[in-house]
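Narrative summary of target 7.
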Amino acid sequence: IDVTEKTDAENRLHAVMRQRESILESVGDGIYGIDMEGRIVFVNQVGARMMGYTQEEMEGKDLLALLGHARGDGSPYRMEESPIYATRRASEPRRARDEVFHHKDGHPIPVEYVACPMVSNGRVTGVVVAVQDVTERRRLDRMKDEFISTVSHELRTPLTALRAALGLIAGGALEKRPEKRSQMMEVAIGNTDRLVRLVNDILDFERMGAGRLPMRFQEVE
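Modeled conformation, tokenized:
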């Protein structure tokens, strides 16, 4: 029996499978494929590692139960409410930006994901979910908010003093008190210098982040 055609077909199938596996493992997102019952049929290494499991531990398990899919406020989804499961009845991808999965050890992981229906011969056969762990992004957002709050306070303090000193001088309240007027001028100059230093510090941080400011390290007291 000439099995050349069969062997060629098997080789092509193996090549396609290897290509699919290479694609799944090369992306930075966690990729989960679930069937119509919600069971995980495939997961890449990033997706398994993100949640603290091995691929073998995840395959065949119910995604909702295993990962504790919840809303951003921590309230868990029931199966009929989950946007991922609802994608089985949809024709378009669904995106979520403020939801939670749970790590194997139980701690919550804030995630963003895109859930796309898998379609075969015009029929939805499952869902592919591409997940990003946004823990670090949320941490940086909080740091940014705290930084802006601190900088706003540090800017407002010298500006308030500067405005008060200049207001007294401009309003003529110190015309007959030259020593007080000189003192207010010193206050205004000192706060102007403080603002200049603060702006320069902020610009230095920006240069550091962009790699444009060389760092020289040495031990200090």
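Helices lie at 4-26, 45-50, 55-58, 63-67, 83-86, 135-170, 178-210.
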